[in-house]
Amino acid sequence: MHCLPRIRILSAAAALAFGSLVACSDNDNHGDVPKTASVRMIAINDFHGNLDVTGTLNVPDPNDATKTIKESVGGAAYLSTLITQLKQDHPLNVVVGAGDQVGASPLVSALFHDEPTIEALSAMGLEYTSVGNHEFDKGKTELKRLQNGGCRSGGVVGSDTCLDGGAFTGASFKYLAANVIDDATGKPLFDGYAIKTFEVGGSRIRIGFIGLVLKETPTIVTPDGVAGLTFKDEADTANALATELKQQGVNAIVVLIHQGIFTTVPFNDKSCAGASGDLLPVLDRLSSDIDVVVSGHTHWAYICKGQGTRNGKPLYASAGSYGRYATAYDLTIDTASGDITAVSADNKLVVNDAQDNPAASAYPTLAADAAIKTLVERYKTAAAPLTNKIVGRIGADLTRTQNGAGESTLGDVIADAQLAATQGDTQKAVAAFMNPGGIRADFQAAQISGGEAAGEITYGEAFTVQPFYNSLVTMTLSGAQIYTLLAQQWVGQTSPRFLQVSDGFAYAWDASQPDDKKIVDGSVTIGGLAIDKSKTYRVTVNSFLAGGGDNFKVLADGTERVGGDLDIDALVAWLGTHQPLAPPALNRIQRSN
Fold it and tell me: With 0-12 CB in 10 A as exposed, 13-18 as middle and 19+ as buried, what is 544?
């Protein structure tokens, strides 16, 4: 018999290859087996290519629970250090994710087709992650390239990917996509699950990881991104694979799912007060064989347990977003049965050293991982000429924050920019609509991120606001279809999605009416004149909305389509010709009751 070190970690394939080997105990050479083993699982979600420092986060003041303080957080180099720290004293460990690791990324990653993020996550030890909806922003072929490697031409500033003529080898971690079926093959786009094997004493422990994404992905991703794919029910898929894993003798089962909840607690919630969201009905239907769920999508940080008849199962948590947290799960596993007998979790804040730390004892400052910092700086240097280019100036903050009617200053500005870009003789647009989910950040007048003066906006900041490279599409809708479009802000939505509208377009809605009757008849105007439901109008939206994205299905029926500039180019042009740009008055959408 061959004797291994006391603890050995094997992949599923390696476990089969070394099936005849056992491990030695610290006490003797006869393979004494402890009754339980502790596995540290470290999880991230919704990283979205945020390689650099992501700003500040309001956190509870450790000296006064009624107050908050600002901590400087995020950055791949600091996240990597935290992951290393969380592995210390836990030789049995695994690093996992719950989707949206790329997509809607800042320019330092997006400019290079998210290769920098894949390289960074691989270097910091990510092993398995579910896909998220944003992994499909550029379609299945591009997602497979990120997994498998290979260069892609078409850099925004004239450079191809594979920076400096190097190679892109793809992710060292595995994407899992159990409920995403490739219509061409009838099989999952990626493996539905993975198994990691650990050896403790003479015992072999196996953990199965099932990867899922929200089944509604086709409604929130551009149609081209999900072409040729079918998205199956999350709970049905997970339960079937849990049964399959159990049949293989894998009794410790973790689900990695890109779906989540909201709570009423703003920071790292463990009370789970007021929990709501589309993950909850999925959890209610999960097999009792599933003990732990790593979740995401909502960008909310929480740690919760199943309620009612679920008897505390599963434990489910999320690490917020943008690499500002990592979740440390401690799994206690019975070495005889392989079952998870206990689980706890804690969200750890990724505090960087970019600013002074006001509460270092409560929120320790992390040092940057030198290798990851070098990787990020290499791409920042390559992107700097475009990132730091000044494209406009604002006189006050422009934010995504909506008023009671659903209107925001930044939403108005973006809609205005898109209308201006499509009013010419070719498109002849008279109104533009912008989906709020496509506005990813705010413009802050005091923000200084690239050495610019207060109020100046860089291309990098503009790209962070609109990072999708959607093209503008102008189409013809009837007045009746415009009424339908506005009603679809409620109809078919889990919560209202208020389209942001261009100057000259206005309407009123009545909160007391049913969803399909909320738009006040006769209130929809263009240029101050009520629209005629029997006449037609030229309107502009981005390519995501044009395909019926966000459940605005009537837009897919628009006719006489004409393509236009990229949305980011329209915004940059508007910023350049309106300096300083003041916040528009929020008077385009009116609410009654």
Answer: buried
